[in-house]
Design a protein that fits this description.
The protein is mainly α and 688 residues long. Among the domains are: 17-156, no CATH class; 159-173 and 189-246; 284-337, 2-Layer Sandwich (Herpes Virus-1), CATH 3.30.40.10. Helices cover 69% and strands 1% of the residues. It has 35 helices and three strands. The chain has helices spanning 19-32, 42-65, 71-96, 99-104, 106-125, 136-150, 158-175, 182-195, 202-220, 225-245, 251-268, 271-277, 309-317, 339-351, 366-380, 387-407, 410-423, 428-436, 439-446, 452-466, 469-477, 481-490, 494-507, 511-518, 521-533, 536-550, 553-561, 564-572, 580-590, 594-601, 606-616, 619-633, 638-646, 650-660, 663-680, and strands at residues 298-300, 306-308, 336-337. The protein has a three-stranded antiparallel β-sheet with strand order 2-1-3. The longest helix has 26 residues, at 71-96. The protein is flat, with a radius of gyration of 33 Å. Residues 359-378 are annotated as: Disordered. It comes from Populus alba. It is an enzyme of class 2 (transferase).
Length: 688
């Protein structure tokens, strides 16, 4: 809940009855008048409101004095406005958000309140009370508040910690296969915990589920797979709890109907037709939104929604890239097992004598799935705010996936590499842990896989890992560069080739990597090939990688020899390519070597293009265009200068750039004017 606030402009002659004090009074009253405090962070919120009410008395006294404020007072009040605004947003977030997710984050939220109180105390440090005309009561209250804020301790409500532990224990027990009345006892306990947070009616349960789903979608937008999995586990439990706690009185009759139907169908029909007969009695929360059938293997997609694995896999494999339920575009295609919901489905089937045929077409075998579940599901239901717990979960997941890559069948390697790829996408800590788990050497081996998806997943995982600075060295030390170039040259999918180019771009940020890659001429040829054949994103990745490599002087000639210059000029004429600025930047860089200058001068269409780009290009594009024109006119570039003088658009474009361009562009435009004037003195072309 980090809130970036707009700066408040304060003048030295600020009036105490001006906008700052009025804004402080207004926002303090808004916070103080909050009704129906949320169930989570109740103690922190009520204490914070009491503090702000005390500050409100200070602000009203200042308004009533109607005298100029000293500068330090204005600074203090500005800081207090920032603090109170963030308090307001934090309280609103607790009110509008999910109670249960707030409970899981209780330590994180408590720390946020604690930091705001410390900031409040820091602001009051610079308040010159002796210079303000305040009432004795107000002065005493502010001094007391200041002392309390300076020595305040972190307040984590022990009751919330206890309730969170009860919720986690209940989730853990119900995530395991239980029999008899054990499950029912868990839900009785869960009902008591949930009622403490205002969940007492079906409508309140539905509202909480909607808030959890909204939180899952928000987290999915940032790629937080582990967090999304945890939220979905809570959604699954609350949804099922609702169906158990508020079950209709005729549950026993329905159960008996299930038994009778199952017995009848077993005598007269096969398992398939038996499943169809009980379809109408399956709880909605256990139905796949696509097939409307019981979810045998529920998985979570990037949008946060859950589907049966077979149904959503068919949807994705048919070319769709959106969530069927929400229509939201999926930022990745990972299918994360929803172990909590799967356990609840099994429990429901056992309770209702519903036969459940395990899906044998899962990516992992039954024994492997069980092994994976024992390692992953325990952490999947835990909460994320505690960094140590999150890191332990990531470590366990990474080690499990690396083990599958090292020992698994090709199909298991494909799935494990895909999940590792996604895990590496979600943060620097994850990237460090994955590298420490020994993933990089195995990923290098899989770069030469004959399976297109495995190769694509491996190179993309390598790309995600390379974002961490230390991992760049590890990747290079693993002897990966030749394998990455192989994928770049002849990868089995275009996405694999493009991600190989992006990996080279990422690695080449380090100077030593520029040198190492520069000793392999085929890297430049492969990048130029992708520049010619790739998608818009692929062309941009290739151009960016070539630019990074060309920063090292010795690599510029290799880029030119690979045939980059004519292709880059061609890119300037292709609006669909969308890399005009990248192409100009690379051409301007290649101009610095003799081979590049010679090749660029061969182009017959470049100068007219550059003149047009001086008028219609972006700020960066104009800078690189004038850099190219100036470089082409220097050192024997009289022919280019004559072309500029002949072209009726060149002088107006230069004049416009000299007047309105960036500082760098203006300097170079003036230099080009001087050069053209020297050329003009030997001819009859006037320069305006």
């Amino acid at each position: 809940m980090n809130v970036v606030l707009p700066p408040i402009m304060i003048s030295s002659g600020f009036s105490p009855t001006g906008s700052l004090v009025e804004s402080l009074i207004h926002i303090s009253n808004e916070v103080a008048s909050v009704e129906k405090l949320p169930f989570v962070q109740f103690r922190n919120i009520s204490t914070m409101i009491r503090r702000i009410k005390l500050l409100s008395s200070l602000f009203e006294d200042i308004r009533e004095t109607n005298s100029p404020l000293p500068p330090s007072s204005i600074l203090c009040l500005t800081e207090l406005f920032s603090v109170i605004q963030r308090v307001k947003l934090l309280i609103q977030g607790c009110k509008d958000g999910s109670c249960l997710w707030g409970l899981m984050q209780t330590q994180f939220l408590s720390n946020q309140f604690h930091l705001l109180v410390k900031e409040m105390g820091g602001a009051l440090d610079i308040l010159p009370l002796s210079l303000l005309n305040l009432s004795a009561d107000t002065r005493e209250q502010v001094e007391l508040l200041h002392r309390q804020a300076k020595r305040v301790d972190l307040l984590v409500d022990p009751r919330e910690l206890q309730r969170r532990e009860e919720l986690l224990q209940t989730m853990t027990r119900n995530n395991q296969k239980s029999s008899g009345n054990k499950g029912f006892d868990d839900f009785v306990k869960l009902k008591e915990v949930l009622s403490c947070f205002g969940l007492r009616s079906p409508l309140e349960y539905e509202e909480e589920i909607k808030k959890l789903e909204a939180e899952a979608e928000k987290q999915a937008g940032t790629g937080g797979l582990i967090v999304v999995s945890n939220i979905n586990n809570i959604i699954s439990l609350v949804t099922y709890s609702k169906s158990v706690i508020f079950v209709d009185r005729d549950k026993e009759e329905i159960k008996e109907n299930f038994k009778q139907r199952s017995a009848f169908m077993n005598r007269n029909q096969d398992v398939s037709s038996s499943s169809q007969s009980i379809l109408s009695d399956i709880p909605d929360e256990f139905r796949c939104p696509i097939s409307l059938d019981l979810m045998k293997d529920p998985v979570i997609v990037a949008s946060g929604h859950t589907y049966d694995r077979n149904s959503i896999a068919q949807w994705i494999n048919s070319g769709h890239q959106t969530c069927p339920k929400s229509g939201q575009r999926l930022i990745h295609m990972a299918l994360i097992p929803n172990y909590a919901l799967k356990s609840l489905v099994h429990q429901w089937c056992q309770d209702n004598n519903v036969p459940l045929i395990d899906d044998s077409s899962s990516s992992f075998s039954k024994s492997e799935s069980s092994s994976g579940k024992s390692k992953l599901s325990e952490k999947a239901i835990d909460h994320i705010p505690a960094t140590k717990a999150a890191m332990n979960a990531v470590k366990m997941t990474a080690e499990f996936l690396v083990g599958k890559i090292a020992m698994g069948s090709p199909e298991i390697q494909r799935q494990a590499t895909y999940e590792l790829r996604l895990l590496a996408k979600t943060g620097m800590g994850n990237r460090r842990i994955i590298a420490e788990a020994g993933a990089i050497p195995f990923l290098v081996t899989l770069l030469s896989s004959t399976d297109p998806k495995t190769q694509e997943n491996a190179v993309t995982a390598m790309l995600n890992l390379s974002i961490l600075e230390n991992n760049k060295t590890l990747i290079m030390s693993a002897g990966s560069i030749d394998s990455i170039i192989d994928v770049l040259e002849s990868g089995k999918t275009m996405e694999a080739r493009e991600n190989a180019a992006a990996t080279i771009f990422s690695l080449s940020i380090i100077n030593n990597c520029k040198v190492t890659i520069g000793t392999r001429p085929r890297a430049f040829s492969a990048l130029v090939g992708l520049l010619r054949e790739g998608t818009s994103a692929g062309k941009k990745d290739a151009a960016s990688a070539l630019f990074n490599l060309s920063v090292y002087e010795a690599n510029k000639a290799s880029v030119v020899v690979a045939g980059a210059v004519p292709l880059l000029v061609e890119m300037l004429m292709d609006d669909k390519a969308g890399i005009t600025d990248d192409a100009l930047a690379l051409l301007a860089l290649l101009l610095g070597c003799s081979e590049g200058l010679e090749e660029i001068r061969k182009s017959k269409v470049l100068v007219p293009l550059l003149i047009d780009l001086l008028r219609f290009g972006s700020t960066k594009g104009k800078e690189n265009s004038i850099t190219l024109l100036l470089g082409l006119c220097k050192d024997g570039g009289e022919e280019v200068a004559r072309h500029l003088l002949i072209n009726p658009r060149s002088i107006p474009s230069l004049q416009s750039l000299s007047a309105d361009g960036s500082l760098k562009a203006r300097r170079k435009a003036d230099a080009l004017f001087r050069l053209l004037n020297r050329c003009c003195s030997q001819s009859h072309y006037p320069v305006g």
